[in-house]
Specification:
single chain; six-stranded parallel sheet; five-stranded parallel sheet; binds iron/sulfur cluster; 12 helices
Length: 440
């Protein structure tokens, strides 16, 4: 019988998947700290004797990464390097019975709405009074703010509602308390996240209240940038565009996954929109906020996507010239509405379509970045990386968008602070620049 290690309890929280999982891990760690537990996030020494893995169950690759991470720590447990392994998050929510059978050496599996029970096995009590208290894992100057959980949308390809449940908005007053606490800690950039940001308020206020929330958050001293992620096209609240235009703290940036543009595919995807409506919506964004940076995400290889339909998508991407774009190959997910369709596009063709779209987007991004050469942009400096300081403009979100590289051998800028940077050159996805010379 393998004996319990002599180590003092140290809980290592490992997060996989999206920013919403990062947020949930931060809330878990905030609760553990409030219970005086010794907790770390993705400990580089990897010497925690208790490991909590917050998994992702979105699509094939993400699920595989989660399973490999579980196996990694179960293996460490069998070697006596870890005493207990707990698994939570979307993969666990979606596949608990199978996981319990396939990987029985995990101490316990928890769902996405199971925090109090997870805390109990970690010998901690759930503290209701800790509104917005969390241990942020992002750099000191920016943080995610999850404004709602779950999703009520019927998108055919998506398993998220199966894992995250129905849409639940967090009241404006709680979010203002949370954001104010973050600002007091030095957070300057708030990144608003949800499964569907634009659905905010429909459940608790019976109206779309994102614009109202933005106006309230913009009043908080210390917060200088507010960024919007995961908007949805159908029923998009146009009053949000007014707030983006009028309120300087709201970045001229909008992330809105559009997934596809062909009418038949959009219908099969149950997106509730059309080629024409989507194109008009993008035009409305550009008219209301002329220099807005629009980020979108597309799915290629969806059942029934013929070469002609794919060509329509490519032509549209070329015409729309999105500032930021990501693309996924369709993943056939069980228990989704699309699971009943025939996954009839070969994987090789799916991957070819992914690279075709990204080649197109690289060219568009290169051309758009050339237009920035010679201009000065307010940038937040995220880190020092080798010989470069690395920052972002208001048009760039962390980890997914362009970066501004400043030669650290020639220049000095302060990490965590804003600086005006003059762009001197650009590639597809990076800008190079130097601090703006202050005229004497
Ligand atoms: S909006 Fe659609 S794609 Fe996004 S989480 Fe909800 S169901 Fe999934």
């Amino acid at each position: 019988m393998r004996t319990k290690s002599k180590k003092e309890n140290k809980i290592n929280v490992v997060t996989l998947g999206c920013s919403k999982n990062v947020y949930d891990s931060e809330v878990l760690m905030g609760q553990l700290v409030a219970n005086n537990k010794n907790v770390v996030h993705e400990d580089e020494n990897d010497d925690g004797n208790i490991v909590v893995i917050n998994t992702c169950g979105f699509i094939g690759d993400a699920k595989e990464e989660s399973i490999n991470t579980i196996l990694h720590y179960v293996n460490k447990k069998e070697l006596g390097e870890v005493d207990r392994v707990y698994v939570t998050g979307c993969l666990s929510e979606r596949y608990k019975p199978d996981l319990q059978k396939e990987i029985p050496n995990v101490d316990e599996y928890f769902g996405t709405h199971d925090l109090p029970n997870l805390l109990k096995v970690l010998d901690a009590d759930y503290k209701h009074e800790l509104i917005g208290e969390r241990l942020t894992t992002t750099p000191i100057h920016y943080a995610y703010l999850k404004i709602a959980e779950g999703c009520d949308r019927p998108c055919s390809f998506c398993a998220i509602p199966l894992m995250r449940g129905k849409h639940v908005s967090t009241p404006i007053e709680n979010l203002v308390i949370e954001a104010t606490k973050l600002a007091k800690k030095g957070i300057k950039e708030l990144i608003l996240i949800a499964q569907d940001l634009t659905y905010y308020g429909l459940d608790i206020y019976k109206k779309r209240a994102l614009a109202e929330l933005l106006t309230a958050l913009a009043k908080i001293d210390g917060i200088e940038w507010i960024r919007l992620h995961y908007a949805f096209p159908t029923g998009f609240p146009l009053d949000v565009l007014e707030v983006i235009h009028n309120e300087p703290k709201i970045c001229n940036y909008l992330d809105i996954p559009l997934q596809h543009i062909n009418d038949d595919i959009l219908k099969s995807m149950r997106r509730g929109t059309s080629h024409e409506k989507t194109t008009n919506l993008i035009a409305a964004f550009r008219k209301s906020v002329p220099n807005i940076a629009i980020r979108t995400t597309l799915i290629v290889g969806y059942p029934g996507e013929t070469e002609a339909i794919f060509q329509e998508l490519k032509d549209w991407v070329e015409a729309m010239r999105f500032e930021r774009l990501g693309v996924f190959a369709y993943s056939h997910e069980e228990n989704t509405h699309a699971a009943s369709l025939k996954d009839n596009i070969p994987e090789k063709v799916k991957q070819k379509r992914v690279s075709d779209i990204m080649d197109l987007q690289s060219q568009i991004s290169f051309e758009l970045n050339q237009e920035k050469v010679g201009q000065v942009f307010k940038c937040i400096i995220d880190r020092k990386d080798g010989n470069y300081f690395v920052g972002r403009t208001e048009f760039d979100s962390p980890d997914v968008d362009n970066e501004v590289l400043i030669d650290a051998t020639e220049n000095y800028v302060q990490v965590g602070k804003f600086a005006n940077i003059k762009i001197t050159s650009a590639t597809e996805f990076d800008l190079y620049g130097e601090p703006e010379k202050v005229k004497s």
